[in-house]
Amino acid sequence: MAVAKKESTSKELTFQERLLALKAELHVPKDKYNSFGKYNFRSKESILLAIKPLCVKYKMNIYVTDTVKEYTLNGVVSSYVESRAIAECVQFEDKAESTAQAGIEKAGGMAMPQAFGSASSYAGKYALGNLLGIDDTADPDATNTHQKTPSKPAASAKPAPTAAQVKSMTDAVKAGRKEDVIAALGKYTVTAAVRKQILG
User: Fold this and answer.
1) Total-model pTM
2) Where in the chain are the domains?
3) Among 37, 99, 123, 190, which has the minimal tally of Cβ within 10 Å of its Cβ?
4) Nearest Cα to Cα of residue 47 among 23, 81, 71
């Protein structure tokens, strides 16, 4: 009597193999546009939307948690959001995580909930990017020195913003679009006074 052979199943992927496969398949288009810097970028929400079907496929759960923390600089207490991106497997106890921070700054007409939301979105985007290996080197945020002195002079000087551009950016901050303006400022050479005028 012949015995039917049971079809062999594929090898069960480990947690690290699942995460690696998910990273390899993940594609997050830069579907947002910064009108000041004139460049496309991706957001935290774009990344979370793109990973949903891959999470189902590889039985993973990827999410972001936020914690508000404080620090003191020159006697002034300020707050920042620390976002923690976590990847867990439904079948295993293993997990991987990455963190990123963003200061909470209320400027112009921005309400406090908007300031918190902006910091959360900004920090969460980079925490997810670090966790999932998303390369953002083409974005201005990656090359913005944030007023730090570079070790070597730049190959070409950045232009100063025109009066019209300064007014446009100032109005945008007042309208609650500070994150876009901060990113756009990386394209220009601005004095501390002009930066304060724009950001409030």
Assistant:
1) 0.61
2) 15-139
3) 99
4) 23
